[in-house]
Amino acid sequence: MHSKATNDDVVIRCIAGTGAELPVYKTAGAAGADVCARVASPVLLAPGEYALIPTGLSLEIPDGYEVQVRPRSGLAFKHGVTVLNSPGTIDSDYRGELKVLLVNLGKAPFTVNDGERIAQIVVAPVTRAVFVPAETLSRTERGDGGFGSTGS
């Protein structure tokens, strides 16, 4: 579902190598745009294996934004295949090829074929923080309670 850019849209310039497909929003309400594998030959992922899958795409992300790489729910549900470092972050100053780190957490081998939708990307604004040294931190009800400290 390609659309024309409006004044409210974030424009991301894309270089698509030979045979690569630009990211596509599949529905009008989709938050993520699908990206496809661009592989010379099928990539077999045995259960527990992971691989860096090329997309053939390079992006020019505007300052103040990032692109998050997220799993496709269908691949995760049907095959147990997901993005290992989810969500992956593509910074605005990166100009190399977008590659997706897929992992097979399923019980059967999975083959990644050329042109197959392997992940989705979400464009998000970035807020930068200023980190300052401190001797103490303000107290809260939770305090330093970590993993599982707020209940099951």
Give a structural overview.
Strands 1-4-8-6 form a 4-stranded antiparallel sheet. Helices cover 5% and strands 36% of the residues. It is globular and about 55 Å long. It starts with 12 loop residues before the first strand and ends in a 27-residue tail after the last strand. The chain has 152 residues and is mostly beta strands.
Explain the layout of strands and helices.
Layout: E1 13-16, E2 33-36, E3 43-45, E4 50-60, E5 65-70, H1 73-79, E6 81-83, E7 88-90, E8 97-104, E9 110-112, E10 117-125
Radius of gyration: 19 Å
Number of helical stretches of at least 4 residues: 1
Quaternary state of this entry equals: single chain
Given helix and strand content, the structural type is: mainly beta
Approximate strand percentage: 35-45%
Q: How many strands appear in the DSSP assignment?
A: 10
**Amino-to-carboxy terminus distance:** 41 Å
| Main pleated sheet | 4 strands, antiparallel
Shape: globular
State the share of residues found in helices, binned by percent. Answer: under 10%
Strand order of the largest sheet: 1-4-8-6
Unreliable sequence segments? none
Order of helices and strands: EEEEEHEEEEE
Mean pLDDT reading: 94
Offer a concise description of the structure.
The protein has one helix and ten strands; from the N terminus they run βββββαβββββ. It has 152 residues and is mainly beta. The strands form three sheets. Strands 1-4-8-6 form a four-stranded antiparallel sheet.
List descriptors:
36% strand, four-stranded antiparallel sheet, 152 residues, mainly beta
